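Table S5 (text form). Sequence records supplied for joint modeling of the two-component complex.
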Amino acid sequence: MSRRSVFKFRLYVAGDSQNSLLAIANLTTLCRAHLTDRHEIEIVDVFREPARALADGVLMTPTLVKFAPSPVRRIVGTLSQIQPVMEALGLESFAA
Amino acid sequence: MSPGAPPQARDPTDEISSLIETLHRTEKRLEELTAGEVDTVADHEGRTFLLRRAQDQLRLAEAARQNAILNALPAHIALLDPQGVIISVNETWRRFPRANMLQAPGHPIGINYLQVCESAMGDACGAEKAAEGIRSVLYSGIKSFSLEYSCHSPTERRWFLLTVTPLADDRRGGAVVMHTDVTAHRQSEENLRASELRFRQMAENIRDVFFLIDTETNRVLYISPAYEEIFGRSCESVYTNPYAWTDAIHPDDLPRIYEAYTRGLSTGKLEYEYRIVRPDGSTRWMETRGFPVRDETGKTVRITGVAEDITHRKEAAQELHESERRFSDVLGNVELISLMLDREANITYCNDYLLRMTGWQREDVIGKNWFDLFIPSDASDLKALFASVMEGTPHVSHLENEILTHAGGKRQIRWSNTLLRSNSGKVIGTASIGDDITENMERETKLLLQSKALNAAANAMIITTHDFKIVWMNPAFTELTGYTEAEALGANARELLGSGVHDRAFYENITDTIFAGESWRGEMTNRRKDGRFYPEAQIITPVKDKEGRISHFIAIKTDLTAQRQMEAQLRQAQKMEAVGQLAAGVAHEFNNLLQALMSMAAITRLRAPTAELKKIGTEMEFQIRRGASLTQQLLLFSRHHAIDKSELDLQEQVHKASVLLRRLIPENIRIVVESSPAILTIDGDAAQMQQVLLNLAINARDAMPRGGTLTLRAGCSAGEVFAEVEDTGDGMDEATRARIFEPFFTTKEMGKGTGLGLAVVHGIVEEHGGRIDVESRLGSGSRFRVVLPSALGVSAPPIPVPAEADELLGGSGRVLLVEDEEGVRSAITALLEMVGYEVIAVASGEEATGIPQEPSPDLLLSDITLPGITGPALVKRLQERWPSLKIVLMSGYIEETLRSDVSAQGWQFLQKPFEMTDLISHLRAAQEGQAPGAATSPASRPVA
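The corresponding structure-token record, covering 1040 residues in total, follows.
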């Protein structure tokens, strides 16, 4: 995995509900800190676009899907626990 | 729970309880499974289920948002219950409890708002209406009630709009009461009403006549009261007869206006100026403008317009003419020439300034030809130019030329010209404005002269800014430093020229002085562009600007190179003079010594009984002669000679130099003298030629520290003769070779060379009309060839023939010998007696004067330099005693002046050390009364 590869995320949320807002905040903070200038985030509101969630097989919100770099990863929840999230995203090596 | 599910048999209440229980457990389990981090879950059909906690949160968030909106509204909002009791208020209501009298002071919740309104003070009517309205909404099912009311505070006028709406569709649900501050809106409405009023008042009151005409009926619908005032007729008359106003029109204008008005009724547009005559007989200027008012089909139905009294404006236009006239009077007074010429260049107008300047009277110039009166006769091209402009060639708008004054003086004028054209466009003349720039020209010329002077100055000059940036320089600066303008301008003078020779304190002293506003004078060493250092004298003067701050420095530089060189040459000359004086003193002693030896060697040779002894005597004489030659060279070399040209044999000069050189050149250097069979005659100064050869040879020696061969060569080619000095030493590179003739240039170690040697050589050779060719390569020696013009037609100098003893015998007479050196005295005595003279030898002048009168001596042979009475004084006294006494004087060294004195007296002179033959021939010459000098030439010696 190249150090410079761009991380592509899609975050499924449910409107302004609290866990969704938390997940958005946590994700953007994480990206700013560890993936400066090499991330893209798309936010999908399941109330507005329920079909997309269904198409992607997302049954709970908030759910984060990492499309690139491969492999594709899904994380359900507010993303509040940074360390497990980083590990799941394959970012462990860049911690510290 | 599916809507389509069939009714259940068992008690629905139980089933509901059980379903709720299931729902509750399901939700709880979902919460557990998702650790509370999930808001929604969905099934595979896409049915999304919002978890209850998320639902609650969303609801709270929504409520908070709505609350925020309510609080942010500028309106005062309260919720009333069905009885009119306030159950909630927004932030605005809370914050401004006293802004409105219909709002209860203090905490409003729980207060019956109907009672508040009913008990309100002030505008009781408004309050009662409000209470009524609220009741109607609360009890009568009215959907909305609003009321605008005023509530003026002591400081401002305020209006509010009360709006009451039911809280919900349920008619018993209470009401929302909202007070909105509509002061601004109300005020703008009031303003509008006020402005309408003002318009009316204006229309009624101003002096312009407004009117409205119905074009279909040709009736006047409205005419403002100003009509009565301006026209002096009633409005009523116009309403009854729409043409009544034309009665007032001035008879001259009436036909035109009537026609214009009639046409205007069809076009809808009116625009004309006219005069009216008022009943009191006064006339006024009017202007009427009308515009069409059209209906929706575009047809003109009305004309609205205004008739304006423009009498003042008309009068102002009149005044404009007047002011133009005044303006031209002003032009007449400005310090500019104003002039108009017709096609023939005759003066049609000129202002006083031209007359004042030139001294002419107006009546003498108007109508006269401009060129005849004002233009110098040699400027005929101007006349031609004027003519061609009149014929239509492109016209010259600016030019400068001289004009003549009445008294014949000249002024330089800069002209701006304009062509005057007739209505048909034909050129009818010119109008010109002229500026007298004579003084400017003079000033410019003076500046130009000054700048030329600075540029021509031999001293280098620069002007720098206060931080030493060069902003101006003259050509001498380039000559001095080698920097061109492009290189020097903008450069820091100190950085550009600094040599690094002077320490910081030196520059600080300069800076302190010039920034204190004083000039600095001094000398310093600076560096040229090529890196060479040069000495210069400088005067740096600060220049102050108008505010008295130092803005620039002017530096004037004098190159001291030549002066320093002259100083060094002077020092060298003084050194040589000192050496010369020393040498002269030594030479005197030395020559006396040699004289004694010479005499004795001659006696030895002549009296030798054997051939062997005779040979020894001859050899002694030869060596003594070489010794004499050595002192002679030393004198020549050291003495500062004025140039004294005579015909010289260059070959002999080379030979002479080589003799001296053998004593100056160490033994590891071999000296080779190559001579030419030709006779190499030049016109030159012997002493200087010796110096040239010696200097070249000494350089050659210094170039061969480890030994080598020094070749002295004389020769000729192509009408020129040359002497060469060649070494086998270090040689020179190209850069060194280029500079060797510069004064003070030396490659030698400190203290070993003056740097003058080759410069002196160069000077001497140039003075002789010759040149020096240099060949040199690094590592393979150098050859200096001194090329001089040949002086032809001169015979070879005679070669001395050694005298034989017998031909000298037979001298006769009595010789008085005065010589203080005993060795010399006895040797000469012996010699003279040997050849047959009778000798009276004394040691001093005093002794000589004391000898007996008889027998009288025939000849005096005396040393010039004696203690006591000496030289000419002695001769005088002795000749008083023996008037026929013949004189021969001798000296080891005498000054040039004394020597010429001696020969002027007709006395013979012998330079010590002299040969015996010279002595005898001089004595004989004196006895025979020959002119001095004749005896010096051996050719004149009688040969037996």
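Note: Residues 561-607 of chain B form the longest helix (47 residues).
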